[in-house]
Amino acid sequence: MALVLDSEAILGAVSPARAVELTRESFERHHRGEWEMPAKVYVSAPPGGDFRAMPARGSGYASLKWVTSFPGNPERGLPVVAGALLLSSAETGALLAILDCATVTSLRTGAAAAVSAQALARPSASSVGIVGCGVNGAWAARCLNAVGYGPGLCADIREAAAADLAEELGWRVAGVSAALECDVVVTVTPGEHPVIGAGRMESGSHYAVLGADAKGKAEVDPTELGRCEVFCDEWAQASVGGELAGPSRRGELDRAAVTELGAVLCGEHLGRAGADSITLFDSTGLATQDLAIAIAAYEEALAAGTAPAVELGGE
């Protein structure tokens, strides 16, 4: 029997602060080679979006996330991200749980931004600017708030989205320019046009750019990258499908100039070089992060014994 975990069950099991802990641990396990993650597979669905298949294995479990990205869906009254995550036993292959992948994605996306801030922002950093207050931007704000960052500024072309998030957290609504001047800046936009223009990055600030999640997308003017200490979740993935993909393809950025965040968390790299440095973290989303959230949610639900279950297949 496989447990079925909806959004409410997952959020009841994994708080924002816990998601940050789990995501940090997944970065470390992935970097040390304890957890494995084959390359993400993209299946295009023009003109509106794409599908992604993301497998991972670690700590006796294996997972596969089948997730969508359809940025125009809100205009149809539909979510941008949808799909399912399958969690199986890596010992027997038995299907253990089916999870709502939109919730898992939101938790680990927001948590990755917070982990990057903890590792790369100045020790005195406190203020937060969120540019793009949709689902993933909101979870980035919640995770940062949960680990002590804030108060923050919420910027979005959709005034209601910014206002709702600001009211929830006790933050303020602001324009993009003000948000980009904060100690920690998180951008979660569609990535079709840069929101961080040339000369807009502030000395000493940390930028977590989460929106450029496929080839051809970018949230940062490429001329700004030369001013930054650049970090990513995984170079093999980020160099072909994230903020760094374009500069890498054009020969403007090579592997030697980019550090994986796991190396910082495992103590193999210093991280920020100085107080005036500009740090940039390109998050493309790792399947090992999804796995960490899924394991925690499953084990909590299993212990509670309250989640519904289904039986699929069998002889």
What does this structure look like?
The protein has helices at residues 7-13, 16-31, 101-120, 135-146, 159-169, 176-179, 235-241, 245-249, 261-265, 287-304, and strands at residues 2-5, 41-45, 49-58, 61-69, 83-89, 95-100, 128-131, 152-155, 172-173, 184-187, 206-209, 228-232, 258-260, 278-282, 309-310. The mean pLDDT is 94. With 315 residues, it is α/β, with parallel strands linked by helices. The longest helix has 20 residues, at 101-120. It starts with a strand and ends in a 5-residue tail after the last strand. Helix 1 (7-13) crosses helix 10 (287-304) and helix 2 packs across helix 10 (287-304). The strands form 2 sheets. Strands 9-8-7-10-11-14-12-13 form an 8-stranded parallel sheet. Helices cover 33% and strands 23% of the residues.
Classify the helix fraction into a percent range: 25-40%
Order of helices and strands: EHHEEEEEHEHEHEHEEEHHEHEHE
**Total strand segments:** 15
- Alpha-carbon distance between the two ends: 13 Å
Structural class assignment: alpha/beta
**Low-confidence sequence ranges:** none
Biggest β-sheet: strands ordered side by side in the sheet: 9-8-7-10-11-14-12-13
Give the CA-based shape.
Answer: globular
Number of helices: 10
Q: Average pLDDT value?
A: 94
